[in-house]
Specification:
Elements lengths: L1 H10 L4 H33 L10 H9 L3 H6 L3 H43 L4 H6 L2 H43 L1 H7 L3 H38 L1 H6 L3 H53 L5 H42 L11 H4 L7 E8 L14 E8 L4 E5 L6 H8 L7 E6 L2 E2 L5 H6 L1 E4 L10 H5 L8 H10 L3 H5 L18 H14 L4 E5 L7 H13 L5 E5 L11 E6 L2 E6 L1 H5 L4 H22 L1
Helix pairs in contact: 2-5, 2-7, 2-12, 5-7, 7-8, 7-9, 7-12, 9-11, 9-12, 11-12, 17-19
């Protein structure tokens, strides 16, 4: 358990002064609140009952009597007692407010810092980690788990301090009033604390199951909402409902178990707390009857028990929330423990100038399987080698799974290779800083992603200060400028999540314009025109040809018409280069390229013949 408190202590870094002020305020409020019953006790015994001061009268009582002007003065001015009690309560309330205010400011600041840390860390984790992670679970850890931690730091940390301050203040005060009565009043508090600890050990594991079930449930909801159009298109409503019902039922069952455990705790603690008050009242009444105790002292003890029993009972809830918080912190620490992408130090001599676009790949091997498995996974690269000159356009063709997109991901350093070599301008790729390298590459992914922002903001993603004329020039090159002007708000049109309000072809053209606007020395088009009609594709290719020589361009496509104007074409199959050459050279050779060219040419010819006949 001490390790958990060490973790919480480290989280408070930068906010410990605020917590210190909160604890000081809490201590002052506690002392003032304990003074209220003592005033009532002194008033009952010395002003109402006429008890005289004896040699065993406690110092707090003597000090309070002196402050109130003595027993005789208090007897003649009984209004002083309730006035003093109200005043102490009011001042104690002010300090309680200060305690809550400082603790809330500190906990909110810690939660904000923790969320920023998680968000930044997730953005720097390797792509392989995101491939294997559940998005819903990551969202759960960044929101619900952080909120659980925040609530504990805002409330339960102060409750723990309150319990210790109450015990440290009440025990000496009660001992000074009456030692035997103190022993009676504390007789059942020990069992409550022990039971709370046992309860904490049980509930911690239960809460971990609840959090995991909630994360799985969030993942199902997130996946369903993301693919809602596919669900409707295939009439999968009932299947999705059944798929949701299972994790929902699991979450309900685990949450109900948690509620049952809490119900047991509160029920048992209620019985023990009431028994403690009842025991104190019975014993105290007997001792009053035998002259061993005064009414005022019993009043004080009952009041102190009323103040103390709630924090003691709360220890179970505190321990419960501590269990929740430890689970939440462990889930957060699991993310933070994952090493981010390695970032080699920037060499000023290398990064001072932009890349020229020269690429050299030699004997490159890569596989998506674990490091201890052989490199035979789907999409593996098996010893490919090629070179690209600055300003050259290289086209890459191959069947699905041949390694085309994998090669692009390696060039972007989304994954790291372990065998072979990739060099940019003669520098090994693994020695180049990732951020700087990616700033040198304009890329259109196989599945273009657009943010739920305006079209202008999406286009400026890689060039935040691009002037208006360059934005429009890039949009014209991608044949999307006229389409954007047709929207009601033009370039200020806000598109939906993932660009859902645009068609597939429009999303691809916006992504192409975004990559062109970046004006990077290397442009990668990963099947970037699959959703664009042939006429528009021709116009885009003509615009890109006009820019030939300004950037090295790598084009991946399945339509051979997209590749015919490339300076050179690579044909991949099973992660190997099986053909290389220009379109004319490959079309004249027997091989995969020629077969694909004949198939696509015949299909287009037959389609045109049918259109003419129609």
């Amino acid at each position: 358990m001490f390790s958990y408190f060490n973790t919480i202590w480290s989280l408070m870094r930068g906010y410990r002064l605020r917590y210190g002020l909160a604890l000081v305020s809490l201590m002052v409020a506690t002392l003032l609140n304990y003074g209220v019953p003592l005033i009532g006790s002194v008033t009952i015994d010395f002003a109402v009952s006429g008890k005289t001061i004896a040699h065993d009268t406690s110092r707090p009582v003597l000090w309070l009597l002196h402050l109130l002007g003595g027993a005789e003065h208090l007897r003649n001015n009984l209004w002083l007692a309730p006035a003093a009690m109200v005043l102490l309560s009011a001042i104690g309330g002010v300090f309680s407010y200060l305690k809550g205010w400082q603790a809330s400011l500190a906990s909110d600041g810690i939660a904000r810092r923790l969320k920023n840390q998680l968000y930044n860390h997730l953005n720097h984790l390797p792509a392989r980690h995101h491939d294997l992670s559940d998005t819903g679970d990551l969202v759960q850890r960044c929101t619900s788990d952080v909120e659980t931690t925040r609530q504990f730091l805002a409330s339960q940390v102060m409750d723990i301090g309150n319990a210790f301050i109450l015990a440290g203040t009440a025990l000496p005060l009660m001992l000074s009033l009456n030692v035997p009565m103190t022993l009676v009043s504390f007789s059942l508090i020990g069992p409550i604390v022990i039971y709370g600890y046992v309860y904490f050990r049980q509930v911690r594991h239960v809460f971990k199951g609840v959090e995991e079930a909630e994360g799985a449930l969030t993942g199902v909801v997130q996946e369903n909402l993301t693919g809602i159009r596919v669900v409707r298109a295939f009439s999968r409503h009932e299947f999705e409902r059944a798929k949701f019902a299972e994790p929902n039922a699991l979450y309900r069952d685990r949450a109900v178990r948690m509620i049952k455990l809490m119900a047991w705790y509160w029920s048992i603690s209620d019985i023990v707390a009431i028994s403690q008050i009842g025991l104190t009242l019975i014993v105290g009444a007997h001792w009053i009857a035998t002259g061993q105790l005064t009414v005022g002292v019993l009043f004080a003890f009952l009041a102190y028990l009323g103040i103390m029993m709630w924090p003691v009972r709360q220890m179970g809830r505190i321990l419960t929330d501590l269990g929740k918080t430890t689970v939440a912190l462990n889930r957060i620490k699991e993310i933070l423990a994952v090493a981010p992408e390695s970032e080699p130090p920037a060499d000023p001599a290398v990064t001072a100038q932009p890349l020229s676009g020269q690429i050299s790949v030699a004997d490159l091997h890569f596989h998506h399987a674990s490091s201890d498995l052989p490199a035979t996974g789907r999409g593996a690269l098996n010893g490919i080698s090629f070179a690209v000159k600055p300003g050259e356009t290289l086209a890459i063709l191959g069947p699905s799974g041949s390694g085309k997109s994998t090669l692009m991901h390696l060039l972007l350093r989304l994954y790291d290779y372990r065998q072979g070599s990739i060099r940019f301008d003669g520098h090994e790729l693994s020695t180049l800083p990732r951020k700087w390298l990616r700033g040198q590459i304009g890329v259109v992914m196989q599945e273009p992603f657009l943010f739920s922002k305006s079209l202008r903001e999406n286009l400026r993603l890689g060039h935040s200060t691009a002037p208006e004329n360059e934005i429009e020039s890039a949009a014209r090159a991608a044949c999307i400028h006229d389409t954007i002007l047709g929207f009601e708000h033009g370039y200020e049109t806000v598109i939906g999540e993932r660009g859902i309000t645009l068609s597939g072809g429009q999303r691809q053209r916006v992504a192409i314009a975004r990559a062109v606007l970046k004006q990077a020395p290397l442009l990668i088009l990963d099947d970037a025109m699959s959703a664009i009609d042939a006429e528009t594709e021709t116009m885009i290719l003509d615009a890109l040809k006009a820019r030939r020589g300004h950037a090295t361009t790598l084009v991946i496509a399945h339509r051979l018409a997209t590749l015919v104007h490339a300076d050179r074409i690579l044909v991949l199959d099973h992660g190997r280069i099986i053909q290389t050459g220009t379109h004319a050279e490959l079309a004249a050779q027997d091989g995969l390229y020629r077969r694909l060219w004949q198939i696509q040419t015949n299909v287009e010819s037959d389609f045109k013949t049918e259109l003419q006949a129609t």
